[in-house]
Every structure is written in C-alpha cells, then in structure tokens.
C-alpha cells in the first residue's frame, strides 16, 4: 500500500471527512511530509471507493458547492489494520538490525562504545 493511501485510510479511520478535511488530516498525520493536491486526492478517493475501502457517507451543499463526506468501510478498516501490522513488523525488523549499531537519535550504541 502506498503511503498516501495508508494516510487517507488512517485519516478516515476515526470519522468521516470531506476532501479538505482529509488533506489537512494527512498533513497532520505525516507531520507535514505528505501534502496531497486535490487532483491526487480525488483520484485516490475514486480508486478507494471502487475497491470498496471507502464510501460516500453523505453530501451537503456549502456556499453553493457540494461537499462530499467519505467514510472508511469495514473492508477499508481491515485493509488499514493489515497494513499497520505489516509496517509494525518492518519497523521491528529495522530496529533489530540497528540495535547493535550506533545511530544518532536511535538510542542504541554499538558494543564497547562509551
């Protein structure tokens, strides 16, 4: 699963959001590292809806414009949980490989290093 897809599904895990809300949530979740453009977001939302991972919960008109709220489906929640577990395993493998190496900011030192 691509990182933007993971972040979109994560943004929708807690509550339904409209497009701008998803964009803002992704920025927050990624600590500013991922900034989705509207065209990219709506293409991803269409694809995720086709895959049954999200669905439109409701639509409302705001200042003459249609605002569509998306929610995570049960299949989407399952896919997100599976991906989160996969990433957890990969992170644990990386930490295990780094445990005996001095890595600034990682909190471990190589054996014999004071």
TrEMBL record:
The UniProt entry, under Pfam families, shows:
PadR
- Protein name, as recorded: DNA-binding PadR family transcriptional regulator
Q: What is the lineage of its organism?
A: Bacteria, Bacillati, Actinomycetota, Actinomycetes, Micromonosporales
Q: Does the keyword DNA-binding apply?
A: yes
Q: Which one of the record's GO molecular function terms can you name?
A: DNA binding
Spell out the InterPro entries in the cross-references. Metal_resp_DNA-bind_regulator (IPR052509), Tscrpt_reg_PadR_N (IPR005149), WH-like_DNA-bd_sf (IPR036388), WH_DNA-bd_sf (IPR036390)
Q: Does the keyword Lipoprotein apply?
A: no
UniProt keyword list: DNA-binding
Native source organism of the sequence = Actinoplanes campanulatus
Which segments constitute the Transcription regulator PadR N-terminal domain? 8-81
> Please, which domain of life does this record's source organism belong to?
Bacteria
